[in-house]
Write a structure and sequence with these properties.
The chain has helices at residues 42-48, 76-85, 94-97, 104-112, 118-124, 131-134, 142-154, 172-189, 200-206, 224-229, 234-239, 244-248, 281-285, 303-316; strands at residues 2-13, 16-27, 31-35, 58-66, 69-70, 87-90, 160-164, 192-197, 209-214, 217-223, 290-293, 296-299. By secondary structure, the chain is an alpha/beta fold. The strands form 2 sheets. An 8-stranded mixed β-sheet has the order 6-7-8-3-9-10-12-11, with helices on both faces. A 4-stranded antiparallel β-sheet has the order 2-1-4-5, covered by helices on one side. The structure holds adenosine-5'-triphosphate (ATP) and magnesium ion.
Length: 317
Amino acid sequence: MSLLTVRDLVIDYAGTRALDGADLEVAQGETVGLVGESGSGKSTLGSAVGRLLPRSARHTGGEVVVSGEPVFDLPPKRLRHLRKRRLGFVFQDPIASLDPTMRVGNQLRLVLGRRADVGFHLGRVKLDDPRVMRAYPHQLSGGMAQRVAIALAMAASPELLVADEPTAALDSQVREEVLTMVFALAADAGTSILWLSHDLPAMARRCDRVAVMYGGRVVESGPARQVLGAPAHPYTAALAGSAPSAAAHGVRLEPVPGRPPVLTGPSPGCAFAPRCAFAEERCAHERPPPVRVREQDVLCHRAAELAERVAATEATA
Ligand SMILES: Nc1ncnc2c1ncn2[C@@H]1O[C@H](COP(=O)(O)OP(=O)(O)OP(=O)(O)O)[C@@H](O)[C@H]1O
Ligand SMILES: [Mg+2]
C-alpha cells in the first residue's frame, strides 16, 4: 500500500518554479532515496510532504497524500496531528532544528512527555553519556546534535521519516555511522524513509528504491539496483557514470556537462533536453509523458527506444 503519494505537484517561489509536476510514491516500510543536482527540487518536495514550505512558496497544483490524508487540504488541527503522529523530519543543520535555550533532556521531555525515558531514547541513537542530557545544543558536536535531532524525529515511531541530507555536513566516518543507525532504527519501527541526497551510488546501496529529480520533476524511479545499474533516463545514465558497471561499484561520476535549468514557469518540453546527448526536435517542446521501461517509471521520449538499442548491443556482444 502507498504511504506517500505525490501527484503532479507544482510549487512556485516568487518567480521560480521549484516543482514542475513531480510524481512520487513511497510504500509502507520502504526506503526511497531522492537524488538530483543542487536546485532540482529535492528540499521543496521533502518539505511539501509535511506542508513545511517557506512562506514565499505557493502551491500551484497537484497533491500530496499521506496515509490517505490530502496534506494541502487539511485543516490546521489535522495537519498538526499528521506532522506529530505520522511524520518525522531531519535536516542538514541539526543545531537549527533544536532549541538553543533548552537542555537536550528537556527538549526530549517536551516532545515525549514528562515521564518519558529520555535515557532510553538517547541510548537508541548511541548517546549513552548522561552529560548529553544536561547539555545545551551548542555544546554538542555536529554528529551528536544530529543524533539528538534523529532521536526527536524517531521518538514517536513515525510512519515516514523525511531526511533532507542530514549527514551532508558530517565527516565520512560519522556519516556512515549515522546512516546505518537511522536505517536500523527505521527498520525496527517499521518507518518508511525518504532520504534526500546528491549521491546516487550511496543511495542505491542503502535504499530499496531510488527517485531521480531534474528540473522539478522525478524523471526516473524504480528499484535501486535497476536505476543505478541499468538507468533508463539519459540524465540518470549520466549521473550514474555512463558505464553501468563502474556506477555499480560506487565510482563517483563525471559531472554532467552544462548547467541545470532554473525554471520560471512550466518547462515547455523535457528540461534536460539542452544537455542531453540524445535529444531530438520534440524533446525541446513536448513534455515527455511517463513511460514504463523494465521496472522503471521514466519521463523521456526516447527511453523505450534507447533501452531496446542497449539490449540489442548486449545481445550481439
Ligand atoms: N525559499 C526560496 N525562495 C526562492 N526560491 C527558492 C527557495 N527555496 C528554493 N528555491 C528555488 O527552488 C528551486 C529548487 O530548490 P530546492 O532547494 O528544492 O532544491 P534542492 O534539490 O534541495 O537543492 P540542494 O541540493 O541545493 O539542496 C531552486 O531553483 C531554488 O533556487
Ligand atoms: Mg536541498
